[in-house]
């Protein structure tokens, strides 16, 4: 099965945990992430 390519917009309260979940999932590939605050991105 092909891996899903994931892009995340917003790394705040909900984005941070979801990013960690996607990074740990064997069929997900996080390819991009962005946030309004440069320190989070």
Describe the structure.
With 41 residues, this protein is of the alpha+beta class. The chain has one domain. It has one helix and two strands; from the N terminus they run E-H-E. Strands 1-2 form a two-stranded parallel sheet. It starts with a strand and ends in a 7-residue tail after the last strand. The model has no long low-confidence stretch (mean pLDDT 93).
Shape label: elongated
Largest sheet: 2 strands, parallel
Q: Please state the oligomeric state of the protein chains shown.
A: single chain
Low-confidence stretches: none
Radius of gyration: 11 Å
Mean pLDDT: 93
How many β-strands, per DSSP?
2
How many distinct helices? 1
Strand numbers in spatial order across the main sheet: 1-2
Question: What proportion of the residues form beta strands (DSSP E)?
Answer: 25-35%
Helical coverage, percent range: 10-25%
Order of helices and strands: EHE
